[in-house]
Specification:
The protein is built from 9 helices and 22 strands. The protein is an alpha+beta fold. It folds into 3 domains: about 160 residues, RNA polymerase II/Efflux pump adaptor protein, barrel-sandwich hybrid domain (OB fold (Dihydrolipoamide Acetyltransferase, E2P)); about 60 residues, Irregular (Dihydrolipoamide Transferase), CATH 4.10.320; about 220 residues, Chloramphenicol Acetyltransferase (2-Layer Sandwich). Strands 12, 15, 18, 19, 20, 21 and 22 form a 7-stranded mixed beta sheet that branches.
């Protein structure tokens, strides 16, 4: 009979220095059998929504966090019952997991067979043999790393080794400790009471300590009714009665349709974007220039391209042409594709372009970027823009696609806006805002005619870009859009 053990999976480090994530939804239920790297949950970091793969193949025994809960990196979120075919040798600490219980634990050092890492979207993927079984490495396999600090202090929480087994370090003359009976994962005594952000806000307004409230929701989740019942039961501290009465009345009025204000927790993408914009606005000295151009020739070119069989199946928009014009103008004005390295006191000039596209999503503004956009043809650029915007609107943009941008475009024209003063994406030297294309009277060949006109707004970091350089770049973009054929003279 194959022995089993309980493994706990702790929230792994999702990269980019992020310390917490919100559980959006579980893709599995207690009792479900899962395979290695099967998606088990969707979590939202400060930058994007990420699918979380399972580090084990086994049966889900417990979901420790409810959707809507913000979880710190290293905290357990799910437990699995897995087969213990090799006698209970511990799993590698780097898998972001820990052992809750087991049977037939062995002290023998496992054989370090040649191993490979399974593809994994986040965290520290399970090491797998060619046979498909996870390779369990001996504790202390990193002990050869030379460093003055202890190994444990240099490892993130999810990588720190578990406590020694009962029989570890015994001599042959000493009797072995009896094997531990199989048991389910025990709750952590220091775990914060389970609740959702609105419930925690209500409890705070009412002066209620959630540790004193018994949850009646699924898995012990504390609900709004639990908090209200606690208040109604007379358990509220006397010092909080006056404040809580007002808060409770406001809460009751809200439920009866008398809501006068709505409060939304600042978290996730919006929290990250706000911090980034504040940092950018008060770090880089912004300068903004405007240029209104007749883009009728570009709009006519766009119509012809859409009818061409060479672009069949591609989604061509004014943004496609503006992006291509920007990439062409950068070749003549490389100072717009730079970065100010404050620590090294250097100006870094990029010989590639990772083109950021500001995208409005239900979770807030994101700026994913197209890697090596400078090397793409117009058709390839069109396909990349379509994929980027669709992925962003679905909330599926990966953290990697949100980092490493060198210059950005924001399309405010889709909202009917003509011009603005965009704030730089942190770390970039410039951002171009394209306004709405409008038919309006314009001087054309010595006469007044109805033409299609667009306003371009360029913000740049005045530490990196002088007024002359910014003006020449903006003029080049405008020239290309007003006469696409001029590109032949630029390249």
């Amino acid at each position: 009979m194959t022995a089993t053990m309980i493994r706990e999976f702790r929230l792994p480090d999702l990269g980019e220095g992020l310390t917490e994530s919100e559980i959006l939804s579980w893709k599995v239920n207690v009792g479900d059998t899962v395979t290695l790297n099967q998606v088990i949950a969707e979590v939202e970091t400060a930058k994007a929504v990420v699918e979380l793969p399972s580090p084990f193949a086994g049966v889900v025994t417990a979901l420790h966090e409810q959707p809507g809960t913000v979880v710190e990196v290293g905290k357990r979120i799910v437990s699995f019952e897995i087969a213990n075919d090799d006698g209970g040798t511990p799993a590698p600490a780097g898998s972001g997991s820990s052992e809750s219980s087991g049977s037939g634990a062995s002290d023998e050092s496992p054989q370090l067979a040649p191993a490979r890492r399974e593809p994994n979207l986040v965290g520290y993927g399970a090491v797998v043999e060619s046979s498909g079984r996870p390779v369990r490495r001996a504790r202390g396999h990193l002990a050869a790393v030379k460093d003055e600090a202890p190994l444990e202090s240099r490892m993130p929480p999810v990588l720190q080794p578990a406590a020694p087994e009962p029989n570890a370090g015994r001599t042959e003359a000493e009797p072995a400790a009896p094997p531990r009976p199989a048991r389910t994962a025990e709750p952590e005594t220091t775990e914060r009471p389970r609740s959702t952000p609105p419930v925690r806000k209500l409890a705070k307004d009412l002066g209620v300590e959630l540790e004193s409230v018994t949850g009646t929701g699924p898995g012990g989740l504390i609900t709004r009714d639990d908090v209200r019942n606690f208040v109604g039961g007379g358990d509220l501290p006397a010092a909080a009665h006056a404040m809580s009465a007002v808060a409770y009345a406001r809460e009751s009025a809200d439920e009866q349709g008398g809501e006068r204000e709505v409060r939304t927790p600042i978290k996730g993408v919006r929290k990250f974007t706000a911090a980034a914009m504040v940092s950018s606005a008060f770090t880089a000295p912004h300068a903004t220039e405007f240029l209104t151009v007749d883009v009728t020739p570009s709009m006519e070119l766009l119509s012809r391209l859409k009818e061409s069989r060479l672009f069949a199946g591609y989604k061509l928009t004014p943004l496609t042409l503006v992006a291509k014009a920007l990439l062409t103008a950068l070749k003549r004005n490389p100072s717009l594709n730079t970065h100010w390295d404050e620590d090294a006191q250097e100006i870094v000039q990029f010989n590639y372009v990772n083109l950021g596209i500001a995208a409005a999503t239900p979770r807030g503004l994101t700026v994913p970027n197209i890697k090596d956009a400078h090397s793409l043809t117009l058709a390839e650029l069109s396909a990349a823009l379509t994929e980027l915007t669709d992925t962003a609107r679905e909330g599926k943009t990966s953290p990697a696609d949100l980092s490493g941008g060198t210059i950005s475009i924001t399309n405010i024209g889709v909202f009917g806006i003509d011009a603005g003063t965009p704030i730089l994406n942190p770390g970039e030297a410039a951002i171009l805002a394209m306004g709405a294309v409008r038919r309006m009277p314009w001087e054309y060949q010595g006469e007044v005619a109805l033409r299609q006109v667009m306003t371009l707004s360029l913000s740049f970091d005045h530490r990196l870009v002088d007024g002359e350089q910014g003006s020449r770049f903006l003029a080049d973009v405008g020239s290309i859009l007003s006469d696409p054929g001029i590109v032949l003279a630029m390249v």
